[in-house]
Amino acid sequence: MGLTARIRTRDGWAVSHAVVTVTDMTGTQVLRVEADAEGTVRDANPLPPGAYTVIVTAVGYAPAAASAIVTASGRAEVGTVTLARQGGTELPPPGPWTIDPAHSTVAAVAQHLGISSVRGRFTQFSGAIEIAPDDVTKSRVEAVIRAASIDTGNGMRDGHLRSADFLDVERYPEITYRSTGVTAATGTDRWTVHGELGMHGVVRPVDLDLAYLGTGPDPWGGTRAAFRATTELHRDDFAMNYNQVVQAGIAAIGTTLRVELDIQAVQGESLPVA
């Protein structure tokens, strides 16, 4: 066996599309090998003894270099080479991920009487994420929220929010979000998700400020990824113009909503069976 190496991301995931190039001390290329689906590089051809430079490249990742000493055996065991996302940002491994509503929260905060906040959340929603393998900026997310599942902890208020004054859930039972692109933002593991939000019969462009919190195993044998995203919405943009003005001209409910998403997604196209 000649060259062996393992190509991984910072959190241990295989980089299946990596390319390993080996040059000798004169800079001459002596070997070029692609990693397999497990991010492993194996080449059976022995190398002449000497010192070599191993360069690892992959689309969407910063290049990495390592040194290798080949002995009389002809082997070059590079070990594990870790690649960082281009620009220092990360996302989960490529492929489909399914949002787990039981361990996720879709919440909104509105100002009340100009002095305090009212928090609400939607209890019924679903969604899917697709992390692109070669160009992470082409990753996609889609989500559907049942508008009638709004819950602020007050039945009278929830009924009013479901009425034609606000969400009008009889006519517009679903709130939808479909991404149109992803760009890296300032700071490690920070992204901006560009997309279109459909609510109350109106579709508007809405960007999400996204933080990727990492991945890990779950008790059911799967792998989960965690995200936190925020944005601000203006009710007027979605034709929800109702307002009640109390004393001193203060609006009972603010026109700006802060949306807070805490999302867990399970690797794969479906959720585990309970």
UniProtKB/TrEMBL annotation:
Signal peptide: none
The Lipid/polyisoprenoid-binding YceI-like domain, residue ranges: 96-266
InterPro entries: CarboxyPept-like_regulatory, Lipid/polyisoprenoid-bd_YceI, TTHA0802/YceI-like_sf
Xref: SUPFAM superfamilies: Carboxypeptidase regulatory domain-like, YceI-like
Name of a matching Pfam family: YceI
SMART domains per record: YceI
Family of this protein: Belongs to the UPF0312 family.
PANTHER family (UniProt xref): PROTEIN YCEI (PTHR34406:SF1)
Protein name: Lipid/polyisoprenoid-binding YceI-like domain-containing protein
Species of origin: Streptomyces spinoverrucosus
